[in-house]
Amino acid sequence: MRRSPFWWLLIVCMVLLDIYVFQALKFISQSAGSKTKLIIYSIYWTLSGSAVLTLLFLPYINSNFHNIPRAVRSTVFALIAGLFFAKLVAAIFFLIDDIRRGIQWTAGKLYFSGTEGENFQQGEKITRSAFLSWTGMLAGGGLFTSLIYGFNNKYRYQLKKIQLPFQNLPASFKGLKVLQISDIHCGSFNNKNAVLRGVEMAMHENPDLILFTGDLVNNRADEMNDYIDIFNRFKAPLGVYSTLGNHDYGDYSSWPTPEAKQQNLERLKQIHGELGWRLLMNEHIILEKGNDKIALLGIENWSAKARFPKYGNLKNAYKGAENYPFKILMSHDPSHWDAEVRTLYPDIDLMLSGHTHGFQFGVEVAGLKWSPVQYVYKQWAGLYEQGSQKMYVNRGFGFIGYPGRVGILPELTLIELS
Q1: Tens of pLDDT along 389-409?
Q2: For residue 66, pLDDT beyond 70
Q3: How far apart are CA 195 and CA 202, in angstroms?
Q4: How far is CA 199 from CA 176, 209, 259, 305, 352, in A?
Q5: Which H helix or E strand runs over 264?
Q6: Angle subtended by helix axes 70-111 and 130-150, to nearest 10
Q7: Nearest-angstrom CA–CA distance, 314 and 302
Q8: What is the rounded distance in angstroms from the CA atom of residue 136 to the CA atom of residue 316?
Q9: Radius of gyration of the chain, Cα coordinates, nearest whole angstrom
Q10: Residues 36, 25: contact at Cβ < 8 Å?
Q11: Is residue 121 predicted with pLDDT exceeding 50?
């Protein structure tokens, strides 16, 4: 099977990275006994060699790819990616150390030539820094360990409760409890009981309204076959409403014909109905409570990022909702807020999004909120406010790619309007 030049470049980079990190490993283990060294080196090269061989033979594995359990596939690739990035992080510290050694060697040649200083500045006396070598190993090892630990967090649902005040919210809707769910990604699940616990946790709060903001599946409608009896348990007095996310269109899967892809999308729309959810496709509905009414808008996926599609049409969804005093928008991608919602629709009071998953990796502790995804998305998790408008970005119920979560746990959001 023919592989692209990029594939071979990736293999070469992995091998070179393995060799580079191994030099530092040899340095920090130099005082260990010969048997201990043998064990350390054997473990290192067994893991590294297995990762390279897996990628090398991946085209042949692909022919039987779907015969391998989904959980096994995702775990193996997560381990390979985690090992690669752990070594990459460690290599940054080793590179800093090697730059230091290079500068020291150059200084010896330029400024201490022919003196005792030259001998001191070069040769075997310019050893690696034990501090940087250990720091690199600990940083890389810590990253890899955290990724392994994160496998246990993928069903560790957290319920976040927030109260959002709005001056123009009609009196009958004061105290309304809105449950937001997003990014279920049903195709990634392998533990039905754990998923059920998450749904039951949400329903225990007795929400008045449930809103799902897209990505029900990874790619294919049939991923939902075994989970319809789980997610149809979402019930609320004012109803359950949903939108589509970028993964729902099947854009990331191969289809024999365009018609097959369209049939998959139509089947997914039917599933929303079978769940008892009202799918909003660039439209709005009116919610009534007491003598008051508010507008709920839902659009298809719309992203300001070039690699994601713009299926949504907010203009169509907004038409006819102008005269209602309060408006909620369901839009999967949070980049929509700055790109269109705030600038063109300042009377949309609350936008609910998902999509980012918080990258399933980050830190959220008192005074510190960080994830790599923030370098791509300005709004990536939690509440954002601009003037009288608010947006909440849900961290996602499910997971995709990496079968776990580190620091950014799966989320159910209970929003009380006041």
Answers
A1: 999 999 999 999 899 999 999
A2: no
A3: 11
A4: 20, 14, 34, 31, 19
A5: helix 258-274
A6: 170
A7: 9
A8: 54
A9: 26
A10: no
A11: no
- For the chain, what is the largest distance between any 2 Cα atoms, rounded to a whole number of angstroms? 94
User: At residue 358, what are phi and psi to the nearest 5 degrees?
Assistant: 60, 20
Beta bridge partners, 328, equal: 296, 350
Beta bridge partners of 327: 295
Residue (of 126, 138, 140) closest to 97 by Cα position: 126
Which of 102-116, 329-343, 372-386 bottoms out in mean pLDDT, i.e. has the lowest? 102-116
> What is the chain's length?
418
Please name the residue ranges forming H helices in 128-191: 130-150
Task: Looking at 63-129, list the stretches that DSSP marks H as alpha helix, in order from N- to C-terminal side.
Answer: 70-111, 116-121
Distance CA 392, CA 382 (A): 5
Task: Report DSSP letters for 337-405, one per residue.
Answer: IIIIIHHH-TT--EEEE--SGGGGB-EEETTEEE-GGGGT-SS-SEEEEETTEEEEE---SS--SSSS-
Phi, psi of 87 (to 5 degrees): -65, -35
Residue showing tokens 């067994």: 46
Which residues lie below 8 Å from residue 224, measured CB to CB, with a gap of 6+?
Answer: 186, 216, 217, 231, 268, 271
Could you report the per-residue pLDDT of 365-394, keeping only the tens digit for each? 888 999 999 999 999 999 999 999 999 999
Average pLDDT, integer, range 217-236: 97
Query: What are the backbone angles phi and psi of residue 181, rounded to the nearest 5°?
Result: -125, 150
Angle at 286 between CA 283 and CA 288, to 5 degrees: 165
| Averaged pLDDT score across all residues of the chain | 90
Which tokens sit at 337?
């807020």
Residue 133: predicted pLDDT? 86
Query: How far apart, in Å, are the Cα atoms of 45 and each of 3, 51, 83, 173, 375?
Result: 25, 10, 12, 62, 34
Do the Cβ atoms of 355 and 332 come closer than 8 Å?
A: yes
Q: What is the DSSP string of 328-339?
A: EEE-S-THHIII
Residue ranges and CATH numbers for the domains of the chain are 5-151 (no CATH), 158-417 (3.60.21.10)
| φ, ψ dihedrals at 116, nearest 5° | -65, -25
Sign of the torsion angle spanned by Cα atoms 210, 315, 373, 72? positive
* Residue in this structure with the two tokens 């009380």, named with its chain if needed: 416
DSSP at 128:
P
Alpha-carbon distance of 396 to 412, in angstroms, equals: 8
Average pLDDT, integer, range 75-83: 84
The single-letter code of the amino acid at 82 is G
